Amino acid sequence: MKKVVIILIAAMAMISCGNTYQVQKVALTNQNDSMNYALGVVNGAQMKMYQLRNDSSMETITEFIDALQRGYDGEIEKLSEAGNIGRNIGQAIKNAEKTGLADNPLWTINQKIFFQGLVNGLHHDTTVMKSEDARNYFQTQYQNASVLNDSVELGKAVTGKCTDKVKTITLSSQNDSINYAFGYLNGDEIARYVLLLDSTGQMTKDLISNINKGLKSTIKNPQIVNMGEQIGKNIKDQEAQGLIGEPSLATDFVLIKQGFINGLLGDTTMTGEQAGEYIQNTMDHIKYGTVKEDGEKFLAENALKEGVKVTDSGLQYEVLKMGRGKKPAATDRVKVHYHGTLIDGTVFDSSVERGEPITFGLDQVIKGWTEGVQLMPIGSKFRFYIPQELGYGSQPAGSIPPYSTLIFEVELLGIEK
Questions:
Q1: Most CB atoms within 10 A, among 190, 198, 248, 379?
Q2: DSSP for 26-86?
Q3: pTM value?
Q4: Which domain holds residue 318?
Q5: How confident is the model at residue 92 (pLDDT cuts 50, 70, 90)?
Q6: Active-site residue set
Q7: pLDDT score of 287
Q8: Does the pLDDT of residue 235 top 90, yes or no?
Protein backbone atom coordinates (compact mmCIF):
# COMPACT_ATOMS: atom_id res chain seq x y z
CA MET A 1 0.00 0.00 0.00
CA LYS A 2 1.29 3.44 -0.88
CA LYS A 3 1.97 5.85 1.92
CA VAL A 4 0.10 9.11 2.00
CA VAL A 5 2.30 12.04 1.07
CA ILE A 6 2.83 14.18 4.16
CA ILE A 7 1.02 17.25 2.92
CA LEU A 8 -2.65 16.76 3.58
CA ILE A 9 -4.02 18.56 0.56
CA ALA A 10 -6.63 18.08 -2.04
CA ALA A 11 -7.50 18.65 -5.56
CA MET A 12 -7.10 19.55 -9.20
CA ALA A 13 -7.02 23.16 -10.28
CA MET A 14 -10.34 24.39 -11.60
CA ILE A 15 -11.44 27.99 -11.93
CA SER A 16 -14.75 28.82 -10.25
CA CYS A 17 -17.49 29.91 -12.57
CA GLY A 18 -18.44 32.66 -10.16
CA ASN A 19 -22.11 31.64 -9.95
CA THR A 20 -24.38 32.99 -7.24
CA TYR A 21 -26.34 30.39 -5.32
CA GLN A 22 -29.23 30.95 -2.93
CA VAL A 23 -31.98 29.11 -1.10
CA GLN A 24 -34.88 28.35 -3.41
CA LYS A 25 -38.21 26.69 -2.78
CA VAL A 26 -38.68 23.65 -4.99
CA ALA A 27 -41.82 21.95 -6.24
CA LEU A 28 -41.78 18.30 -5.21
CA THR A 29 -44.61 16.65 -7.10
CA ASN A 30 -43.85 13.00 -6.42
CA GLN A 31 -41.70 10.58 -4.44
CA ASN A 32 -38.92 10.65 -7.03
CA ASP A 33 -38.62 14.44 -6.75
CA SER A 34 -38.60 14.31 -2.97
CA MET A 35 -35.91 11.63 -2.84
CA ASN A 36 -33.57 13.56 -5.14
CA TYR A 37 -34.06 16.77 -3.20
CA ALA A 38 -33.69 15.07 0.19
CA LEU A 39 -30.47 13.40 -0.94
CA GLY A 40 -28.99 16.80 -1.73
CA VAL A 41 -30.25 18.35 1.52
CA VAL A 42 -28.89 15.65 3.82
CA ASN A 43 -25.46 15.70 2.14
CA GLY A 44 -25.34 19.50 2.08
CA ALA A 45 -26.26 19.70 5.77
CA GLN A 46 -23.61 17.12 6.69
CA MET A 47 -20.97 18.99 4.71
CA LYS A 48 -21.84 22.21 6.50
CA MET A 49 -21.57 20.45 9.86
CA TYR A 50 -18.29 18.67 9.21
CA GLN A 51 -16.23 19.71 6.16
CA LEU A 52 -17.29 23.39 6.31
CA ARG A 53 -17.54 23.83 10.06
CA ASN A 54 -14.58 26.23 9.97
CA ASP A 55 -15.48 27.93 6.70
CA SER A 56 -19.03 28.05 5.40
CA SER A 57 -18.52 31.27 3.48
CA MET A 58 -20.38 31.87 0.25
CA GLU A 59 -17.07 31.70 -1.60
CA THR A 60 -16.46 28.17 -0.37
CA ILE A 61 -20.02 27.06 -1.06
CA THR A 62 -19.84 28.51 -4.56
CA GLU A 63 -16.62 26.66 -5.29
CA PHE A 64 -18.18 23.43 -4.10
CA ILE A 65 -21.40 23.75 -6.11
CA ASP A 66 -19.49 24.78 -9.24
CA ALA A 67 -17.29 21.71 -8.78
CA LEU A 68 -20.34 19.50 -8.19
CA GLN A 69 -21.74 20.61 -11.55
CA ARG A 70 -18.42 20.05 -13.33
CA GLY A 71 -18.16 16.57 -11.90
CA TYR A 72 -21.66 15.68 -13.05
CA ASP A 73 -21.01 17.17 -16.49
CA GLY A 74 -17.79 15.19 -16.89
CA GLU A 75 -15.62 18.31 -17.07
CA ILE A 76 -13.00 17.17 -14.56
CA GLU A 77 -9.46 17.55 -15.82
CA LYS A 78 -7.86 14.13 -16.17
CA LEU A 79 -4.42 13.93 -14.64
CA SER A 80 -1.94 11.14 -14.10
CA GLU A 81 -1.19 10.08 -10.53
CA ALA A 82 1.99 12.15 -10.51
CA GLY A 83 0.22 15.07 -12.15
CA ASN A 84 -2.60 14.96 -9.63
CA ILE A 85 -0.16 14.94 -6.71
CA GLY A 86 1.75 17.82 -8.26
CA ARG A 87 -1.42 19.87 -8.72
CA ASN A 88 -2.38 19.21 -5.12
CA ILE A 89 1.00 20.32 -3.85
CA GLY A 90 1.00 23.45 -5.97
CA GLN A 91 -2.42 24.49 -4.72
CA ALA A 92 -1.53 23.72 -1.10
CA ILE A 93 1.66 25.76 -1.26
CA LYS A 94 -0.23 28.61 -2.93
CA ASN A 95 -2.76 28.56 -0.07
CA ALA A 96 0.10 28.48 2.45
CA GLU A 97 0.79 32.11 1.52
CA LYS A 98 -2.28 32.91 3.63
CA THR A 99 -2.35 30.06 6.15
CA GLY A 100 1.33 29.40 6.76
CA LEU A 101 3.29 26.25 6.03
CA ALA A 102 1.33 23.17 7.16
CA ASP A 103 -1.46 25.61 8.18
CA ASN A 104 0.69 27.02 10.97
CA PRO A 105 0.69 30.84 10.91
CA LEU A 106 3.97 30.82 12.84
CA TRP A 107 5.70 29.35 9.80
CA THR A 108 5.98 31.61 6.77
CA ILE A 109 6.05 29.81 3.45
CA ASN A 110 9.21 30.19 1.42
CA GLN A 111 8.27 28.53 -1.87
CA LYS A 112 11.78 28.67 -3.28
CA ILE A 113 13.26 26.80 -0.32
CA PHE A 114 10.31 24.39 0.01
CA PHE A 115 10.48 23.42 -3.67
CA GLN A 116 14.24 23.06 -3.62
CA GLY A 117 13.87 20.72 -0.68
CA LEU A 118 11.18 18.79 -2.55
CA VAL A 119 13.30 18.42 -5.72
CA ASN A 120 16.36 17.43 -3.71
CA GLY A 121 14.16 14.86 -1.93
CA LEU A 122 12.92 13.52 -5.27
CA HIS A 123 16.52 12.81 -6.20
CA HIS A 124 17.58 11.68 -2.70
CA ASP A 125 20.24 14.38 -2.58
CA THR A 126 21.59 14.49 0.99
CA THR A 127 23.97 17.42 0.65
CA VAL A 128 21.83 19.82 2.68
CA MET A 129 19.83 17.39 4.81
CA LYS A 130 19.37 13.63 5.02
CA SER A 131 15.91 12.07 4.98
CA GLU A 132 16.06 10.88 8.58
CA ASP A 133 17.39 14.23 9.77
CA ALA A 134 14.66 16.08 7.88
CA ARG A 135 11.98 13.87 9.41
CA ASN A 136 13.28 14.21 12.94
CA TYR A 137 13.75 17.95 12.61
CA PHE A 138 10.30 18.61 11.16
CA GLN A 139 8.52 16.36 13.64
CA THR A 140 10.28 18.03 16.54
CA GLN A 141 9.42 21.50 15.27
CA TYR A 142 5.83 20.45 14.60
CA GLN A 143 5.39 19.06 18.11
CA ASN A 144 6.89 22.14 19.69
CA ALA A 145 5.02 24.64 17.55
CA SER A 146 1.97 26.40 18.98
CA VAL A 147 -0.52 28.68 17.31
CA LEU A 148 -0.99 31.64 19.62
CA ASN A 149 -4.37 32.89 18.38
CA ASP A 150 -6.22 33.97 15.27
CA SER A 151 -4.47 37.34 15.30
CA VAL A 152 -1.06 35.83 14.53
CA GLU A 153 0.28 37.56 11.44
CA LEU A 154 2.32 35.72 8.85
CA GLY A 155 5.61 37.06 7.69
CA LYS A 156 5.88 37.98 4.04
CA ALA A 157 5.72 34.87 1.90
CA VAL A 158 8.53 34.21 -0.55
CA THR A 159 7.15 32.98 -3.85
CA GLY A 160 8.77 31.13 -6.69
CA LYS A 161 8.37 28.34 -9.24
CA CYS A 162 9.27 24.73 -8.62
CA THR A 163 12.64 24.02 -10.21
CA ASP A 164 13.61 20.70 -11.75
CA LYS A 165 17.30 20.96 -10.78
CA VAL A 166 19.01 19.58 -7.70
CA LYS A 167 20.85 22.37 -5.91
CA THR A 168 22.73 22.88 -2.67
CA ILE A 169 21.39 25.85 -0.71
CA THR A 170 22.17 27.56 2.57
CA LEU A 171 19.53 27.56 5.31
CA SER A 172 20.00 30.76 7.29
CA SER A 173 17.07 30.57 9.71
CA GLN A 174 14.73 28.21 11.53
CA ASN A 175 11.99 29.09 9.06
CA ASP A 176 14.27 28.19 6.14
CA SER A 177 15.04 24.84 7.74
CA ILE A 178 11.39 24.06 8.38
CA ASN A 179 10.48 24.84 4.77
CA TYR A 180 13.34 22.79 3.41
CA ALA A 181 12.71 19.81 5.71
CA PHE A 182 9.01 19.73 4.87
CA GLY A 183 9.74 19.95 1.16
CA TYR A 184 12.43 17.29 1.34
CA LEU A 185 10.15 14.86 3.18
CA ASN A 186 7.44 15.24 0.56
CA GLY A 187 9.91 14.76 -2.26
CA ASP A 188 11.43 11.72 -0.60
CA GLU A 189 8.00 10.12 -0.05
CA ILE A 190 6.89 10.79 -3.63
CA ALA A 191 10.11 9.33 -5.02
CA ARG A 192 9.72 6.18 -2.95
CA TYR A 193 6.05 5.47 -3.49
CA VAL A 194 4.97 7.26 -6.69
CA LEU A 195 8.00 7.69 -8.95
CA LEU A 196 9.67 4.38 -8.19
CA LEU A 197 9.21 3.14 -11.77
CA ASP A 198 9.88 6.47 -13.49
CA SER A 199 12.72 5.21 -15.67
CA THR A 200 12.24 7.90 -18.34
CA GLY A 201 11.79 10.86 -16.00
CA GLN A 202 8.43 11.70 -17.61
CA MET A 203 6.49 11.20 -14.38
CA THR A 204 8.81 13.60 -12.59
CA LYS A 205 8.33 16.19 -15.34
CA ASP A 206 4.56 15.75 -15.07
CA LEU A 207 4.73 16.20 -11.30
CA ILE A 208 6.75 19.43 -11.46
CA SER A 209 4.73 20.84 -14.36
CA ASN A 210 1.51 20.40 -12.40
CA ILE A 211 3.03 21.84 -9.23
CA ASN A 212 3.60 25.04 -11.16
CA LYS A 213 0.11 24.92 -12.64
CA GLY A 214 -1.29 24.47 -9.14
CA LEU A 215 0.57 27.59 -8.03
CA LYS A 216 -1.42 29.57 -10.61
CA SER A 217 -4.78 28.21 -9.48
CA THR A 218 -7.43 30.64 -8.25
CA ILE A 219 -9.16 27.94 -6.22
CA LYS A 220 -9.32 28.92 -2.54
CA ASN A 221 -10.54 25.60 -1.14
CA PRO A 222 -9.01 22.75 -3.17
CA GLN A 223 -10.17 20.01 -0.81
CA ILE A 224 -13.77 21.15 -1.06
CA VAL A 225 -13.47 21.50 -4.84
CA ASN A 226 -12.11 18.00 -5.18
CA MET A 227 -14.92 16.66 -3.03
CA GLY A 228 -17.53 18.45 -5.15
CA GLU A 229 -16.09 17.11 -8.39
CA GLN A 230 -15.97 13.55 -7.10
CA ILE A 231 -19.51 13.67 -5.70
CA GLY A 232 -20.83 15.05 -9.00
CA LYS A 233 -18.96 12.37 -10.93
CA ASN A 234 -20.30 9.63 -8.65
CA ILE A 235 -23.86 10.84 -9.12
CA LYS A 236 -23.42 10.68 -12.88
CA ASP A 237 -21.67 7.30 -12.80
CA GLN A 238 -24.47 5.77 -10.71
CA GLU A 239 -27.27 7.29 -12.76
CA ALA A 240 -27.81 4.16 -14.83
CA GLN A 241 -28.34 2.05 -11.69
CA GLY A 242 -30.96 4.43 -10.34
CA LEU A 243 -30.82 6.91 -7.48
CA ILE A 244 -28.99 5.37 -4.48
CA GLY A 245 -28.82 2.17 -6.50
CA GLU A 246 -32.62 1.84 -6.61
CA PRO A 247 -33.81 1.17 -10.20
CA SER A 248 -37.28 2.56 -9.52
CA LEU A 249 -35.86 6.01 -8.72
CA ALA A 250 -34.48 8.22 -11.51
CA THR A 251 -31.72 10.75 -10.86
CA ASP A 252 -32.71 14.41 -11.13
CA PHE A 253 -29.47 16.34 -10.74
CA VAL A 254 -31.17 19.75 -10.75
CA LEU A 255 -33.09 18.83 -7.60
CA ILE A 256 -30.05 17.21 -5.99
CA LYS A 257 -27.99 20.32 -6.66
CA GLN A 258 -30.62 22.64 -5.19
CA GLY A 259 -30.91 20.32 -2.22
CA PHE A 260 -27.17 20.67 -1.66
CA ILE A 261 -27.45 24.46 -1.87
CA ASN A 262 -30.36 24.62 0.57
CA GLY A 263 -28.66 22.19 2.94
CA LEU A 264 -25.41 24.15 2.86
CA LEU A 265 -27.19 27.48 3.40
CA GLY A 266 -29.27 26.17 6.29
CA ASP A 267 -32.77 26.23 4.81
CA THR A 268 -35.12 24.83 7.47
CA THR A 269 -37.94 23.83 5.12
CA MET A 270 -36.40 20.36 5.24
CA THR A 271 -33.55 19.90 7.72
CA GLY A 272 -30.74 17.43 7.19
CA GLU A 273 -32.19 15.18 9.89
CA GLN A 274 -35.65 15.25 8.31
CA ALA A 275 -34.15 14.54 4.89
CA GLY A 276 -32.22 11.56 6.24
CA GLU A 277 -35.32 10.12 7.90
CA TYR A 278 -37.35 10.60 4.72
CA ILE A 279 -34.75 8.79 2.62
CA GLN A 280 -34.55 5.90 5.08
CA ASN A 281 -38.31 5.54 5.40
CA THR A 282 -38.84 5.75 1.65
CA MET A 283 -36.16 3.19 0.86
CA ASP A 284 -37.60 0.88 3.49
CA HIS A 285 -41.03 1.26 1.92
CA ILE A 286 -39.70 0.60 -1.59
CA LYS A 287 -37.80 -2.50 -0.54
CA TYR A 288 -40.00 -3.87 2.24
CA GLY A 289 -43.27 -1.95 2.05
CA THR A 290 -45.36 -4.97 1.05
CA VAL A 291 -43.82 -7.05 3.84
CA LYS A 292 -44.89 -4.52 6.43
CA GLU A 293 -48.31 -3.89 4.89
CA ASP A 294 -48.98 -7.60 4.37
CA GLY A 295 -48.13 -8.21 8.02
CA GLU A 296 -50.46 -5.47 9.22
CA LYS A 297 -53.29 -6.84 7.08
CA PHE A 298 -52.67 -10.37 8.33
CA LEU A 299 -52.74 -9.28 11.98
CA ALA A 300 -55.94 -7.26 11.51
CA GLU A 301 -57.73 -10.29 10.07
CA ASN A 302 -56.14 -12.73 12.51
CA ALA A 303 -57.28 -10.70 15.53
CA LEU A 304 -60.92 -11.45 14.58
CA LYS A 305 -60.47 -15.22 14.64
CA GLU A 306 -61.93 -17.26 17.46
CA GLY A 307 -59.44 -18.07 20.19
CA VAL A 308 -56.99 -15.33 19.30
CA LYS A 309 -56.25 -12.88 22.11
CA VAL A 310 -54.56 -9.49 21.71
CA THR A 311 -52.49 -7.76 24.41
CA ASP A 312 -52.13 -4.00 24.87
CA SER A 313 -48.82 -4.08 22.98
CA GLY A 314 -50.42 -5.69 19.93
CA LEU A 315 -49.09 -9.19 20.58
CA GLN A 316 -51.54 -11.88 19.51
CA TYR A 317 -51.64 -15.41 20.87
CA GLU A 318 -53.60 -18.64 20.94
CA VAL A 319 -53.53 -21.23 23.71
CA LEU A 320 -52.90 -24.63 22.13
CA LYS A 321 -52.35 -26.35 25.47
CA MET A 322 -52.52 -24.78 28.92
CA GLY A 323 -50.04 -26.11 31.45
CA ARG A 324 -50.37 -26.13 35.24
CA GLY A 325 -46.87 -25.08 36.26
CA LYS A 326 -45.35 -21.77 37.31
CA LYS A 327 -45.18 -18.79 34.97
CA PRO A 328 -41.70 -17.34 34.35
CA ALA A 329 -40.60 -13.79 35.13
CA ALA A 330 -38.83 -11.58 32.60
CA THR A 331 -35.50 -12.20 34.34
CA ASP A 332 -35.77 -16.00 34.32
CA ARG A 333 -34.03 -18.44 32.04
CA VAL A 334 -36.46 -20.73 30.24
CA LYS A 335 -36.23 -24.01 28.36
CA VAL A 336 -38.48 -24.18 25.29
CA HIS A 337 -39.24 -25.92 22.06
CA TYR A 338 -40.33 -23.60 19.26
CA HIS A 339 -41.18 -23.48 15.56
CA GLY A 340 -40.95 -20.11 13.76
CA THR A 341 -42.48 -19.14 10.41
CA LEU A 342 -43.33 -16.09 8.36
CA ILE A 343 -46.99 -15.39 7.58
CA ASP A 344 -46.62 -17.25 4.25
CA GLY A 345 -45.55 -20.41 6.09
CA THR A 346 -41.82 -20.12 5.39
CA VAL A 347 -39.90 -21.74 8.24
CA PHE A 348 -36.96 -19.59 9.36
CA ASP A 349 -36.02 -21.38 12.60
CA SER A 350 -37.21 -24.43 14.52
CA SER A 351 -35.83 -26.26 17.53
CA VAL A 352 -38.53 -28.84 16.86
CA GLU A 353 -37.01 -29.67 13.46
CA ARG A 354 -33.54 -29.78 15.02
CA GLY A 355 -34.85 -32.08 17.72
CA GLU A 356 -33.19 -30.11 20.49
CA PRO A 357 -34.84 -27.57 22.87
CA ILE A 358 -33.11 -24.31 23.71
CA THR A 359 -32.47 -22.44 26.95
CA PHE A 360 -32.10 -18.66 27.12
CA GLY A 361 -32.70 -15.59 29.28
CA LEU A 362 -36.20 -14.25 28.73
CA ASP A 363 -34.85 -10.70 28.81
CA GLN A 364 -32.41 -11.47 25.99
CA VAL A 365 -34.87 -12.08 23.17
CA ILE A 366 -37.29 -10.05 21.07
CA LYS A 367 -40.04 -8.15 22.89
CA GLY A 368 -42.77 -10.45 21.60
CA TRP A 369 -41.08 -13.44 23.21
CA THR A 370 -40.33 -11.66 26.48
CA GLU A 371 -43.96 -10.64 26.86
CA GLY A 372 -45.55 -13.78 25.48
CA VAL A 373 -43.64 -16.48 27.32
CA GLN A 374 -44.45 -14.80 30.64
CA LEU A 375 -48.09 -15.64 29.94
CA MET A 376 -47.31 -19.38 29.79
CA PRO A 377 -47.37 -21.75 32.78
CA ILE A 378 -44.81 -24.56 32.49
CA GLY A 379 -46.19 -27.30 30.27
CA SER A 380 -48.11 -24.86 28.05
CA LYS A 381 -47.98 -24.58 24.28
CA PHE A 382 -48.97 -21.25 22.72
CA ARG A 383 -48.97 -19.85 19.23
CA PHE A 384 -47.75 -16.25 19.07
CA TYR A 385 -48.38 -13.77 16.26
CA ILE A 386 -45.71 -11.11 16.72
CA PRO A 387 -45.98 -7.67 15.01
CA GLN A 388 -42.76 -6.43 13.42
CA GLU A 389 -42.29 -3.76 16.08
CA LEU A 390 -42.21 -6.52 18.75
CA GLY A 391 -39.89 -8.60 16.55
CA TYR A 392 -36.85 -7.45 14.59
CA GLY A 393 -38.41 -4.28 13.17
CA SER A 394 -36.43 -2.71 10.36
CA GLN A 395 -33.43 -4.99 10.89
CA PRO A 396 -33.04 -8.18 8.85
CA ALA A 397 -32.34 -11.27 10.94
CA GLY A 398 -30.92 -14.20 9.01
CA SER A 399 -33.57 -15.20 6.49
CA ILE A 400 -36.17 -12.93 8.13
CA PRO A 401 -36.81 -9.81 6.00
CA PRO A 402 -37.13 -6.42 7.72
CA TYR A 403 -40.63 -5.53 9.02
CA SER A 404 -41.73 -9.16 9.09
CA THR A 405 -44.64 -10.34 11.19
CA LEU A 406 -43.56 -13.57 12.91
CA ILE A 407 -45.49 -16.66 13.97
CA PHE A 408 -44.10 -18.91 16.70
CA GLU A 409 -45.42 -22.06 18.26
CA VAL A 410 -43.76 -22.23 21.66
CA GLU A 411 -43.82 -25.00 24.28
CA LEU A 412 -42.50 -24.03 27.72
CA LEU A 413 -40.60 -27.01 29.13
CA GLY A 414 -39.15 -25.47 32.26
CA ILE A 415 -37.74 -22.50 34.16
CA GLU A 416 -34.13 -22.24 35.26
CA LYS A 417 -33.06 -19.68 37.85
A1: 190
A2: ----SHHHHHHHHHHHHHHHHHHHTTTTT---HHHHHHHHHHHHHHHHT-PPP--HHHHHH
A3: 0.70
A4: 309-416
A5: very high
A6: 338, 348-349, 366, 392, 408
A7: 86
A8: yes
